[in-house]
Amino acid sequence: MPRDDVDRAGRGAALTDVLARVSREALQGENLDAILRRIVDCLVERLPVAIASIIVLDAEGTRFVQEVWAGELDLQPPAISTNWPTTMGAAGRCARTGQAQLITQVDDDPDYIPGNSLVRSEYLVPIRHRERLHGVLNIESTQQDVFSAQACAVFDAIADQIAGLIHLARVVGELETANRKLEQLSMQDGLTGIANRRCFDQRLAGLWRASLPQPRPLALLLIDADCFKPLNDALGHLHGDDCLCELARLCSGFATGPEDLLARFGGEELVLLLPGRGFMEACEVADRLRRRVEEAAMPHPASSVAPVVTVSVGVSSTRPTHARPPECLIIAADRALYEAKALGRNRTMGRPIDALAPPRVPRGGLRGVET
Ligand code: GH3
Ligand code: MG
Ligand code: MG
User: Fold this and answer.
1) Distance (Å, rounded) from C-alpha 276 to C-alpha 187?
2) What's the pTM?
């Protein structure tokens, strides 16, 4: 076979091999950056290519925001390290026109920005998935005759593969963001913006489990607005909603520990989980909270307790143990809350669960604390 034919056959085989490798890389990489890197490495290693780069566009398609490249740079083009507009360079022209650019003699191209003084020719292909332009594949060679029709067709096919990859990575990224948002929404109360019941249930179960090997105190406050139905009846449901939001805001000021959680338990009841707090400390927090709500002086023209919105608080506390489920905390706080209501509302009542460590109530101590 004549020497030219041998060379041509060899290059054809190398191009086919590169295409096959790029397809494999596309299927096997762990993340988009790693895949793009392996693709440009593969192009430089297997073909007479001095520089190969994949330049990714921003969502508007007006700036190149990321470049993954391999090869030899002996000059420092301004574009390499920063984010640059599509008004610059031959790559910019490729992005603006949406057309592949074959530059057989770079010295004659007014837009060419040199990165390697030996480069003679360049081929730039738009990386496009359906109608969306994601970037440009840029191949530069020190030889002048590398970009045959066959080679260009292979680079076009590689650009299509890259477009599919970038598209997929963007879809996955968007899905992950949407999932995070959904996950966050599924844990949040729509009215007050604080954690919802699902979030509270999960946190209580998690704290309980985590504390079993080395039990430490876990306290819970059940906070119930007094005479809330009459408030709705007197001032309207929307006004009641505003009061609930304000209540949630006031109570959130008492979730000061890194693991504390304020959540909407249901209706006009909030729950404050205080890991690491013992019974007396929790009762003190509860009574400060109760007073803070009263001092906020939200008018309540129909309350049997005060001319302002007030709350009753049930407190419970325990050290988690295998012998009891976490719900025992809620049951005890609920009973204490019931007693607070029965005794006239706007008060704090407590029920510790740990029989082995009965709390000591200071003489003349907390108003309404009953053990
Ligand atoms: P008590 O002092 O015994 O707690 O009386 P109450 O009226 O607050 O208690 P009850 O459980 O009888 O009624 C709770 C009321 O809370 C019923 C409902 O009108 C009101 N409520 C529950 N959820 C919401 C809400 O999301 N928005 C508003 N505005 N009101 C709510
Ligand atoms: Mg209630
Ligand atoms: Mg109530």
Assistant:
1) 23
2) 0.71
Query: And the tokens for 300?
Result: 């309540």
The domain 3-185 is placed in CATH, from the list 3.30.930.10, 3.40.50.10090, 3.30.450.40, 3.30.1700.10, at 3.30.450.40
Distance from Cα 286 to the centre of ligand 2, integer Å: 17
Residues in the chain with pLDDT < 70? 1-9, 75-82, 354-371
Q: Measured from the CB, is residue 244 less than 6 Å from ligand 1?
A: yes
Distance separating alpha carbons of residues 128 and 135, to the nearest angstrom: 7
Q: What is d(CA 239, CA 181) in angstroms, rounded to the nearest whole number?
A: 29
197-350 CATH? 3.30.70.270
268 close to ligand 1 (CB < 6 Angstrom): yes
Closest of 333, 316, 39, 254 to residue 164, by C-alpha: 39
Domain spans of the chain?
A: 3-185, 197-350
Distance 263 CA to ligand 1 centre (A): 16
Any atom of ligand 1 within 6 Å of the Cβ of 314: no
CA 3 to CA 186: how far, in whole Å?
69
Sole residue written with tokens 């899905």: 175
Residue 108 CA, ligand 2 centroid: distance in Å: 81
Task: Write the pLDDT tens digit of every residue in 119-167.
Answer: 999 999 999 999 999 999 999 999 988 899 999 999 999 999 999 999 9
Q: Is the CB of 242 under 6 A from ligand 1?
A: no
Measured in degrees and rounded to the nearest 5, phi and psi for residue 272 equal -120, 120
Q: Is the CB of 232 under 6 A from ligand 1?
A: yes
- Give nearest CA residue, ligand 1 atom 12: 229
